[in-house]
Amino acid sequence: MDISVIVPLYNEAESLPELEAWIKRVMEANNFSYEILFINDGSTDESWDVIKSLREKNPNVRGVCFRRNYGKSPALNTGFVRAQGDVVITMDADLQDSPDEIPELYRMITEEGYDLVSGWKQKRYDPLSKTIPTKLFNATARKVSGIKNLHDFNCGLKAYRKKVVKHIEVYGDMHRYIPYLAKNAGFNRIGEKVVQHQARKYGSTKFGLDRFVNGYLDLATLWFTGKFGAKPMHFFGLLGSLMFIIGFIAVVVVGAMKLYNMYSGLSYILITDSPYFYLSLVMMLLGTQLFLTGFVGELIVRNSHRRNEYEIEEELDANDNE
Q1: Which residue in 191, 154, 192 sits closest to 175, CA to CA?
Q2: Are 110 and 123 found together in one domain?
Q3: What is the enclosing helix (H) or strand (E) of 161?
Q4: What does the pLDDT read at residue 132?
Q5: What percent of the chain stands above pLDDT 70?
Q6: Sheet order of strands, 3-9 included
Q7: Which of 182, 212, 228 is the last residue of a domain?
Q8: For position 140, what pLDDT does the model report?
């Protein structure tokens, strides 16, 4: 099969028939073998009934219906598990992503050798209250992830080589950082394509400004797990050691200053009356706790059944020539 199109949706019953017809028209015009996977994320409208009726008319339509609303990331991950096409396309169900982009996305994956191609809605039909935070969010994501060539991490229109979606796990709200997840999994050939952004035709947006706050928290989590997930002692141990050493030196300085004042006949106060003494103790205690946290993290990693699992691209075996 050439292409799997994954469409996560929540209360998009009005747009689904038009979207399915549009995708079908593009696929047939380019002679692609395809499937459309509609992932119904616990919709409360008639979305699932619409999907079932589309399935009756088009055998290339498949569907999954969640019992309740879990979010876009679980919906995408469910689609990734079930996708069978050599190239996987994801798009939103609100008709803001154009299926006409699919042939070029497919070509970039199959002919130009990209592992992942992300859409860039260079011209957006969104209010400033959405576009300005989006620009700040994407600038931060580029800096933290090191993927300098992407301008729109959160664009729902993306294309993947099949092996990419089979080797990453999308959870929580990590759908915003799929290119970063792919990079951490060793898929570094990441490209971008300017795509058309269309104004929403039906319904209303399902996302609020809270996604930007959550997005930054998820980015921090992804950065930490990607950098220190397999070696937590390198973070907690180093930070804890520095804090303990600074606190210890401060205690010594406080004690030395008192002794100096005593033997010099100068006025002095008890060490326990100095606020610096307690600040130093706090530093030492926090340093010890962080160091022990690193040890606990190492114990957890050491006992993980996945500690020696590595992604292997190719292997040459001595038995190949026998």
Answers
A1: 154
A2: yes
A3: strand 158-161
A4: 73
A5: 87
A6: 61-65, 34-40, 3-9, 87-90, 158-161, 116-120, 190-194
A7: 228
A8: 85
Q: Pairing relation of β-strands 116-120 and 158-161?
A: antiparallel
pLDDT digits (tens, 9 = 90+) for 148-158: 889 888 889 99
Same domain, 98 and 245: no
Tokens 């921090």 sit at which residue?
Answer: 220
My answer on whether 268 and 198 are in the same domain is no
Residue 117 pLDDT: 97
Q: What's residue 309's pLDDT?
A: 61
Structure tokens at 295: 């040890």
In a domain, 320, yes or no: no
Domain tally for the chain? 2
Q: Evaluate whether residue 322 is within a structural domain.
A: no
Domain, as residue range, for 120: 3-228
Residue 88 lies in a domain: yes
Q: Do 215 and 139 share a domain, yes or no? A: yes
Using the structure block, give the residue that is written with the tokens 């219906």.
65
Of the candidates 124, 127, 130, 138, the residue with the CA atom closest to the CA atom of residue 196? 124
CA 70 to CA 78: how far, in whole Å? 11
- The answer on 150 and 48 residing in a single domain is yes
Tell whether 319 is covered by a domain: no
pLDDT on residue 135: 81
User: CATH number of the domain that 43 lies in?
Assistant: 3.90.550.10
Residue 185, classed as helix, strand or coil, is: coil
For the chain, which residues score pLDDT lower than 70?
A: 124-131, 199-212, 304-322
Torsion angle of C-alpha atoms 256, 260, 263, 265, degrees rounded to 10 = -140
Separation of alpha carbons 305 and 144, rounded Å: 29
At 307 the pLDDT is 59
Rounded to two decimals, what is the model's pTM?
A: 0.75
Burial level of 271, CB count in 10 A (0-12/13-18/19+)?
middle
